[in-house]
Fold this protein.
Amino acid sequence: MPSEKRLNVNLLDQLDLLERLKMADKEGGYEKMKQQLMIEKRCVERKLYQKTPLMEGGRD
């Protein structure tokens, strides 16, 4: 089960996403929001497919 810190980070990421979408709507309505959604989708895909370290704390 994820730690409380990890859960908080995920929730903050979601709040950031919502803020960016609200700004896109304010700046350009539906079309700008669609563009922002595509950008956000690519960002999520990059995070999803990046390789994560096998062990945290990285021993040398």
